[in-house]
Give the backbone structure.
Amino acid sequence: DSVDWMATGIEQIKNNVINIVRTRLGEVLYMPDLGINPDYIDRPALNDRAAIVADIRAQLRMWESEAQLINLTITPKGDGDYEIEMEVML
C-alpha cells in the first residue's frame, strides 16, 4: 500500500502503521525511536517471526496506540525473499 498524506480518520491511522513498519529504526533523525529494527534484513524471517512481532507491537504502542497487531504471516517466496502480511485491528 502507498501512503496518502491527506488521509483522515481510520485511513490516517492505516497510513501511520504503514509508515512505522516501512521505517528503519534510527532512520528519522529527530525521531530515533521510530521504526523497525534493521537487524532482520538478510536473515531468515521465519526464524525471527517472534522478534518481528514484538518489535511491531512495541512500535504501535509507542507511535500509534489505536492500532493493534493481531496477526503476522510470513510467506517465503521462490527467490529467497519473504512476503509479510499484517492484520491490524483499529
In short: The first strand starts at residue 68 and ends at 76. The chain has a mean pLDDT of 87. Strands lie at 68-76, 82-89. The two ends are 17 Å apart (CA to CA).
